[in-house]
Amino acid sequence: MPTHSTQSLDVAAHVAASIVPAVLDVLGQRWSLAIIQALQQQETSFGQLLAALGIPRSTLAARLKHLQSMGCLEPAAHGYRLSAAGHALLPVVSLAQAWSGNNRVIYRHACGRDFVPVLRCAHCLEPIRARDISLEAPGEPPDLKLPKPLRRSRAEFSLPASFGAAEILGDRWTALIIALGFFGVQRYSDLARHLAIAPNILAARLQRLCEEQVLRRDGPRYHFSERGLQLFPLIVALTEWGDNWLRPPGQRPTRMAHLPCGHTLSPQLCCGGCGQPAGLESLDPAGMGVPVAEFRAGS
Ligand SMILES: [Zn+2]
Ligand SMILES: [Zn+2]
């Protein structure tokens, strides 16, 4: 992975000004991912979502309104359905669900195998790994007029202490620590300087990430564990989605290089079983009901 210290200053500025914080404002709440996932296969009514998610009516209403104002979903005859931008979140949602560690199968791929999402380089088809990527050109600092991010509800703070992708994405500091780490900013002192974050807040986030075996501490540096490295494709998918769907046309997106083939990285979601590209049209629900359990409290 890219750990050139000469690069770290530029990279820190890049991540702070990148599309990632804007994406987190859209998706960085536990229920946003669950709602998107629930709507992936079909139009769903408010009542069905309420029953499937088991969250307070007012929380669901606020999340739906926010996702609608961000252009991810739209009202339909009998409820809500995903917009094109919402459908394009398939890589983010499926990688987040897979990372969260529940091996429950959500989809079956057209090849007949259980769908295990793998993000590959569209050019050489190698799986995307952190050590194979370098920042080619930072994106323009996005000048976005987004609705104010929602405050996290009291109910979300009091959820049982499961730790999945929703916890990473749902906490802006945690997500930024991960994003900086992938581009080589891994020292405590560098993280503290670049994030301008209170020392006790940074220390608590790092400790939690170590307890959850995302990071491991080695003196002043925090390295990614094997589990932590598996978050990298999710960060790539988030960046790609933000650049495609949140950036105003004409703004320069983030460009990353895929070192094994030398091309600018263009990620493609594939089936881990057969290696073929996977989109919603090639996936069938594998089970019964609305598949949202991975993002639910205590599941
Ligand atoms: Zn490649
Ligand atoms: Zn397949």
Features:
single chain; 3-stranded antiparallel beta sheet; globular; binds zinc ion
> How would you classify the helix and strand content by structural class?
alpha+beta
**Coarse morphology:** globular
Count of distinct strands: 11
User: What percent of residues are in strands?
Assistant: 5-15%
How many domains in all?
A: 1
Mean of the pLDDT scores? 81
Largest sheet: 3 strands, antiparallel
End-to-end span in angstroms?
A: 33 Å
| SSE run | HHHHHEEHHEEEHHHHHEEHHEEEE
Plain-language structure description:
By secondary structure, this protein is of the alpha+beta class. The chain has one domain. The protein has helices at 8-17, 20-27, 30-39, 46-53, 57-69, 84-87, 90-99, 154-157, 165-169, 172-182, 188-195, 199-211, 226-229, 232-245, and strands at 73-76, 79-82, 107-109, 117-121, 133-137, 215-218, 221-224, 255-258, 263-264, 267-271, 283-285. The protein has a 3-stranded antiparallel β-sheet with strand order 5-8-9, with no helix packed on it. A two-stranded antiparallel ribbon has the order 1-2. The longest helix has 14 residues, at 232-245. The protein starts with 7 loop residues before the first helix and ends in a 14-residue tail after the last strand. Mean pLDDT is 81; it is low at 1-9, 153-161 and 288-294. The structure holds zinc ion (2 copies). Residues 121, 123-124, 126, 258, 260-261, 263 line the site of one zinc ion (ZN).
